[in-house]
Amino acid sequence: MESRATWVAQSLEVRQQGGRPTIVGRFPYQALAVIADRGTIRKERIMPGAFDFTLQDDTREVNLLVGHSFDKPLASKKAGSLEFNDTEEFLEFSAIIPEGAERASHVTDALAMLGAGLIKGVSPGFRVPPKDVVPDAEKLVPEPGNPGVMIRQLGALLLYELSLVTRPAYEASEAELRAMDRAQRHQPQPRIWLP
User: Fold this and answer.
1) Distance CA 32, CA 152 (A)
2) How far apart are CA 26 and CA 110, in angstroms?
3) pTM, whole model, 2 decimals?
4) DSSP three-state, residue 99
5) 10 Å Cβ neighbour count for 167?
6) Which of 69, 75, 113, 132 is least surrounded by Cβ atoms within 10 Å, i.e. has the fewest?
7) Is 178:79 a contact under the CB 8 Å cutoff?
């Protein structure tokens, strides 16, 4: 089953790195996501290490996209433009926009929306492996203090993309364009093409 939940983004921002626009962000493990799907409400929680299989395999591709659209790529693990720092608390990513890609309209739009604070979330695209391959990949656990509500706890997932999204599930999400230091401000900036 494919899942595309929107999770909290912390420190989602655009920077300049070596003269290239760079998008950095993170989403925490063990945060609770409330997902509404066709009138049904469910709660999910991704556990630390859930993406280990994908992140530790150099042959596996992960893309950074805009709005879950593979027609709007921003960076790629296999191409070396998307890197991860996986900790017990969060999965952090750094995406350097490849040379020439900043001229693509969806890239300039994404950078402009991040800078304006309109993109505020990260949504991972993943699959849960079959139970016969990874028996404990997912399990239902009662919500603390509310045993009638079950939380889908995800412990092993196949990550294939992260997407920048406009409406996060958490109000605490942040998106900002940080001021660059003086030397970086004089670097060539990507042009923003408006339709």
Assistant:
1) 10
2) 17
3) 0.79
4) coil
5) 11
6) 132
7) no
Helix (H), strand (E) counts: the chain: 3, 15
Which one-letter DSSP state was computed for residue 107?
H
CA distance 181 to 35: 39
Residue with tokens 């409400």: 41
Q: Closest Cα to residue 95, out of 9, 178, 13?
A: 13
Q: What is the pLDDT at residue 192? A: 34
CB neighbour burial string for 41-60, b if at least 16 within 10 angstroms, e if fewer: eebbbbbbbbbebbbeeeee
E-strand ranges in the chain read 2-4, 7-8, 10-17, 20-28, 32-37, 40-46, 63-66, 69-76, 82-86, 90-96, 121-127, 138-143, 146-154, 158-165, 175-177
What does each of the 195 residues of the chain score in pLDDT, given as a tens digit?
444 554 445 566 777 766 788 898 887 888 888 876 677 778 889 999 999 999 999 999 999 999 889 999 999 999 999 999 999 999 989 999 988 888 899 999 999 998 888 887 888 889 999 999 999 999 999 988 887 888 999 999 999 999 898 865 533 333 333 333 333 333 333 333 333
The encoded tokens of residue 1 equal 């089953």
